[in-house]
Amino acid sequence: MPTVTIDGCEVKVKRDATILDAARKAGIWIPTLCYHPAVPSEATCRLCMVELDRGEWKQLVTACNYPVRRDIVVYVSSERAKKARRGVMELLLARAPESQELKALAERMGVKGTPYPNVTDSQRNCILCGLCVQVCEQIIGKAAISFAGRGAERTVAAPFRQPSEDCIGCGACAAICPVGTIKVRLHKEQQEVEISPFKSRVKLLVCQECGTPIVSSEVSEQVLRKSQIDWQEFRELLRLCPKCRRSQTSARLRAASVYK
Amino acid sequence: MPEDSEIIEQIVDRYDGDDGMLIPMMQDLQAESGYLPADQLRCLGRHLRLPLSRLYAVATFYSSFRLAPKGAHEVTLCMGTVCYLKGSASISEAITREFQVEPGGTTRDRLFSFQAVNCMGACAVAPVMTVDGKYYNGVSPASALEILYGLTKEHVTADKEEQT
Amino acid sequence: MTELGIKRFSSLVELEGMREKLLNSRSASAKSIHVCTGPGCVAKGSFKLYEIFCAAVEGAGSDVQVQAKCVGCHGFCERGPIVVIEPGGIFYQRVEEPDVAEIFRETVLGGRVVERLLYEDPNTGKKVEKANEIPFYKVQERIALSGNGLLDPTEISDYIAEGGYTALAKVLSPMTPEEVISEVELSGLRGRGGGGFPTGRKWRSCRQAEGSPKYVICNGDEGDPGAFMDRCIMEGNPHSVIEGMLIGAYAIGSEHGYIYVRNEYPLSVERLKNAVAQAKELGLVGETILGSSFSFDIRINRGGGAFVCGESTALMASLEGRPGEPRAKYVHTVESGFRGKPTNLNNVETWANIPHIINRGGKWFAGIGTEKSKGTKVFSLVGNVVNTGLVEVPMGITMRRIIDEIGGGIRDGKRFKAVQTGGPSGGCIPAEHLDARVDFEELTKLGSMMGSGGMIVMDEETCMVRVAKYFTDFLQKESCGKCTPCREGLAQMLYILDRITDGEGQVGDIERLEELGGLLEGTALCALGKTAANPVISTIRYFRDEYDAHILDGRCPAKECRGLFRYEIDPEACNGCGICLKNCPADAITGEKKVPHVINQEKCTLCGTCWEKCPFTAVLKV
Lengths: 260, 164, 622
Ligand SMILES: Cc1cc2nc3c(=O)[nH]c(=O)nc-3n(C[C@H](O)[C@H](O)[C@H](O)COP(=O)(O)O)c2cc1C
Ligand code: SF4
Ligand code: FES
Known about the structure:
The complex is a heterotrimer of chains A (260), B (164) and C (622). With 260 residues, chain A is an alpha+beta fold.
């Protein structure tokens, strides 16, 4: 097992673990945005820069995807590493000035604000980390959204910027978004769930008793398919929200006078 | 449209259905229709078992793809370094001004699509503009406009001939 | 090939046999007309010339032994269209359609030289008959371009007759893959695509990497504006690239090859496809090549118009049918590249050098060039030089010799200001460093780089801030947008540069640019972003006074930035024709007919229309 020396602290990690893994093991915080353990690291945000000692020279690398294959020495809190992370954060703040999540992270890093004006605005408050695209394709298996355009015009969008035909309204993208840009909106009257900003709308299953939305109908179909427990009784259960289901069950039990 | 799907099948077969050849396939498709209609992309995606979002990502990433129909003529202006240094930016501005068309767009009357490309490798005769593949060397804003106005006439007379 | 009586070579002997047969069939007295069909000459109508020559050949009857062929770029694009008559190598330049009949009558049939169409040496005033006597060619040393101007790129028999595929034969019979790699290592060949990585070492890592299949790729993306070296090789001598790839594949242990050609080069695709098909037919590509156990297939793929796809990992993503976004290279592509398999990628020119290295030996190649940069390099010499074109020079030659001796100095008697090398992320080298040698390390030290070989010469009337802005704008548009520093940082840099060239620069802008430059270099994901600030940083380094003039004095010294200079009418030169007055969209010009006109500076919007339209160049920028 190779040893990683981070700011003087030694940790052993498995071969091909990342510097970030090692830092977490050593209890050293490195800010990240585009990293999520559920998907492979694409290292798009460049926030997790650390300095790698190569003997004769030092190199900035991204901690979240640099594989450890031999003993290495890494600096998280060197001036150069801190300056690099601050520079990246300042650029992100200029791009997404309204994100509270981003501001909080910046504060934790000691970055007070940004000297840069907002000059790129392909998508409001989106830092284009790509986690939503990855989760939709790799975990949900839908690939309802993708990147569109390139360079400063890059955005995340559903095909033709129309509501996606493939979206099942699961909300995984919203859950994984590190800056709170993607939102799940419930439209109770239409009994639909909307994933904004992609405009996709999917019918909701609504509790037959109380009318509370339960889950997007497509999600429930996908779960039934994947788990292969598609029997009628189970489908019956799905017609009710958890609350009504509980009260119905207890009512049934009571009626059956089990406790008599 | 059965005809569409036939064309797409042919294209897919041309590359043995190898999804690595998606870009050449999309180029062939564009050569058929002049642009990439949404339905055809959908159909191509189904043939290759690729999600539509992938095709859309590719279509918007590469500058040679067009998602809207193009004009009757294709005007390409080189904005490579040498052409730029020799004034192609002012040619582009002149075209935009006179025809209200930005690079990458098509004039409202669909007379021509205007593309600015990076380098056509003909720097020795810069600035270079091509119209439907024909090279014009050492163009200036004035001569470029003249060439494009020539197009208008050609186009109009052709229309008239068709009517009579 | 069936007309040559050969279907498919099943041994080396058969290849040799065909070569002899081809050479014997050419009688010494036969004439050959070489019409250049390089991009520069084609743009000037050389295909038409070729057609007329063909018609003339047909009309001449069967008793005259003559053939017309289209050949790859001669390099001297400035003087195109170029026609060379062999034997004798009589070099005609700027040939036009009406000249064809004369050339055919006088030179081809009569054996006389048409003086009028020869090149005139500007230094001596003498007419020059042969290419190698022209200063433009004298200083050059041609290896990768040696077949250009000689071979018909559409005919494999031409390539074979000139010794083509002998290197492959040599490799297949007595050499082991190890020996091939050693030979390439000995040559000291470094990648010609930009990075300058030692080719032999790359092959060795790929050979040693675990996993199969292994892939061999040729990078023909050539996205640098102002560069057309690779294009001219692909179109002028496609078989040299294919032969190089075959040798590399044999050495590495690969059976699958791809050539990735940029979308803007349809002719390259056509020529390469044709060449691969011909080589397949003869058993030089495909299964059991030349009867050996070695098999290798080549597919041609087209790009879609994205500069970043020249980057190795982006290119591989594109080959997989995805957007061309680079990925981290902490694990090298020789280990995990195309489809996650070991992949060896080399540039077109790198591949084209390989057959020569095998034929003449690594030692011979290493004898050319400097200590760390061996062999020759092809440059496309463009911009404000007298002789633009494609040049191949030994490494270590000074920039001054390239620009003055080959390029013939600056056009229109103006003064040299800078030369930009290394493509859009290269740097600008000023006059005081013109004696620098062309060498990977030396160019990097100067803040530029070798890149893939664009060399853009700029004269005194070029605004260096605008040059920096042009490249930043280019890179910003071509950035894939995947990573933060490149996408956001370049946009911020461009914003500042825009402000400066608009005359609204602020004190501190230069420092801000330098800071962003440092950030990009340190944190961007791929080499595009890491080097994207080079044009800005190098122009700040050498031309800081121009930035200062824009920012502090609101003045553009080169008079290029609109708004930072004025237009005035020179009363001496103006004869009052009224053209400017009629064309001025702001009605800012007044004056009676035949009396010098005046521009009202208050009304002038600085659009420059008068300057463009004045037939007497009486409108001045001051
Ligand atoms: C943004 C970018 C663009 C590039 N464009 C090209 C190109 O057009 N052609 C090329 O051969 N190499 C290009 N390269 C270099 C390649 O990534 C790669 O290093 C090269 O093709 C390897 O071949 P070589 O070792 O033979 O030079 C580019 C690199 C970057 C970062
Ligand atoms: S540096 Fe630029 S081109 Fe390279 S990955 Fe980042 S955004 Fe894309
Ligand atoms: S967290 Fe490592 S690059 Fe984004």
